[in-house]
Known about the structure:
Elements lengths: L2 H10 L7 H17 L17 H23 L11 H6 L8 H21 L8 E4 L2 E4 H23 L4
Antiparallel strand pairs: 1-2
Helix pairs in contact: 1-6, 2-5, 2-6, 3-5, 3-6
Amino acid sequence: MSDFQKYVQRYLDLIPSENWLEELKRSGEKTVEIYSKLSEEQSLFAYAEEKWMLKELLLHLSDTERIFQYRILAFARGDQNELPGFDEELYAKQSFANERKLSSLLEEYQLIRKSSQILLETANSEALKNVGSANGNQISAETIGKLIVGHNIHHLNIIEERYLPKL
């Protein structure tokens, strides 16, 4: 198994049921529930030095989901162009998330998640099987959809294990 396959599998293994489209909805709802209970002050919390603040983490989820949406769309439509990777640390540093209101970041996340749900729920099942190349790795549109779910759950686990107990 390649490093990329291991990377993908660690996220896919976090999806608690076979109905990944329902889990997409659930993980979004859970994210909104957690962030809706935070104050502005709490949203600027990081559990350790050099770790993202909660606002940065939320915008990271939105940024990653946007990029994954584009890859899903491109591959589902048969685009065979190599798509670039992205540096999540660079994106976080350039996001200025901590200068924004938590409510704005949360609204953005909810709109992006709704857009993902519509894209994935209405996509042709055969088109979701299409494979493309992103960051030098072959992957199907459907697997990227599942990665949105697993990636979100991964960060929810971190929030629950490392952030919330210290707030």
